[in-house]
Amino acid sequence: MLNCPIDGLILECDNNSLKCAHGHSYDKAKQGYINLLTVQNKRSKSPGDSKEMVAARQSFLASNIYKPISEKINQVALSHTETLATNILDAGCGEGYYLTQLEQAAKKEELETNLLGLDISKFAIQAAAKKSKNIQWLVASNRQIPIADQSLDLILCIFGFPVFSEFKQKLTTNGKILLVESAENHLIELRELIYPEIKPYQQNNYQEALDLGLTWGKSDTLSYQVELNKEQLAELLIMTPHIHRANREKLEQVKKLDKLALTINVNFRLLQIK
Hints:
Helices cover 31% and strands 28% of the residues. The chain contains 10 helices and 11 strands.
């Protein structure tokens, strides 16, 4: 179900490579992933998360601080598994935490799923490929998803950057998009420490998605409290955009804290084709 990112033709297996009818060839890396990111979709030599960000996210997520988020994703995703073989894409999968958790949950419930993880960061996909050999990992962009049109039953976009025109094109007739996003009070205690003021919260209605004919389905919110130690707090800062946006002096003050109680507040929203 993979397409050539250059001409859109179907990619066929040829030993350890994928090739299209025009002869474009893509080798499978020794870690098991495929790099289908075209030059025009690169904004730098190594786009996406750096090695440092990937390592911080791996360590932070391994502590299961975000486990309730993962469990909610699994619940929503598997409740929409309406056929024996469901094609699910994690668009912006990072180092693969959420998708491998979904794989385990589907296996436990004896549900057959075909899982694909896509990220623009090669470092993230290299880390993800070590977690599971049963998931198809791709270095690619949400702006050009190298997957056949109308082949995906569910697209996950978890704290990511949705491209609705591309998402809709890849969805089946009954396909859905699950958006997992920061809610009003997500990490509010940290944000109050590192920013001079907190901007009023506004949930994005994504008018571009509605203009494409997508409609809002069920939505839900998850909220709980955690306490981070010094190491976890440092990892959280590295893996989020806050480290680039916040006041430097205030960041240094936060790094000196031994612990910090935080609110985790996340929205889960479904979009579907009318």
